[in-house]
Amino acid sequence: MRKELDKLIQISMMTSIVVVLEKALEGIPNVQLTVVLLMAFIYFLTLPEALLLATAYTLLDILLGGISLYAIPMIIAWNFFALIVYLAKGKLKTLLIIGFIYPIFYSILLGLPYIYSLNLDIRAYFIADIPFTLVFMIANVLTIIWLYPIITKTLSNYIGVNK
What we know:
The chain is 81% helix and 0% strand. The chain has 163 residues and is mainly alpha-helical. The longest helix is centred in the C-terminal third of the chain and has 37 residues, at 122-158. It is globular and about 50 Å long.
């Protein structure tokens, strides 16, 4: 019982760190530490724990940002992210590929409800989103290269080696 409670507290703290740093950087569109932090945290979690982290983060982000058509696609997108990051566990090259490609998937998934509900031109929507997606992609790659090894090494001293 104590071990499960400790793990839930740990996941709550991880969620808080991700949300606080995301909110601190929200003035710069699509530049955030969310991807690299989730990758580093997931390295130390089981798959159910990783999905719990992704869900808790997403729900908190939705509550703080406002419920919109993005809610369901965000839950799907971040849980898919947690799954593929868990499967790539610690493989830096694979994580870099995920960090580069994920923004495209995220953009498509979050754009579809708005395109459909507002009857928008799909090409115009995604062309307008290119600069934001590119910033998201570049920020992910740079933060993964620069921060992922440092964060995982530091966390391993506190959390321990992945079980």
